[in-house]
Amino acid sequence: MALVRWEPVSMNRLFNSxxxxxxxxxxxxxxxxxxxxLAETDDAYVLRMDLPGLTPEDVRIEMEGxxxxxxxxxxxxxxxxxxxxxxxxxxxxxxxRSLTLPDGVDPEAITANFDAGVLTVRVPKPEAIKPHKVAxxxxxxxxxxxxx
Length: 148
Prior knowledge:
The chain is mainly beta and 148 residues long. It has one domain (28-78, 88-147): Immunoglobulin-like (Sandwich), CATH 2.60.40.790. The chain has one helix and nine strands; from the N terminus they run αβββββββββ.
């Protein structure tokens, strides 16, 4: 019985050949999903999304019920046949990312900023969710505030 040695490089080649190489003459269509980070601070949820090549006019932010949705479209720039493209790896197309937020978020308090291709959306937490400090009194000593 022969032992087969597994090599990560070989697996990478296998997956690349399965997902990146077109079959036939049809061009590869990849779905573009922008990278997104969601952070939680004491008073807000902060969403950051990489949207290179887009402008604020290309992006839509909507809140319906408890669902915050960021959507838009990055249009293909390789439509000209003059350049003689051999391989296109950059993805284009419409995107839509949705997050369900806790009850009580005020849609009017949500702010958005677009800088250097990064969209930052700040969603203030409802008062009921914000952490609060409770002072604990100890006999003969000054009360010390602890987070609860």
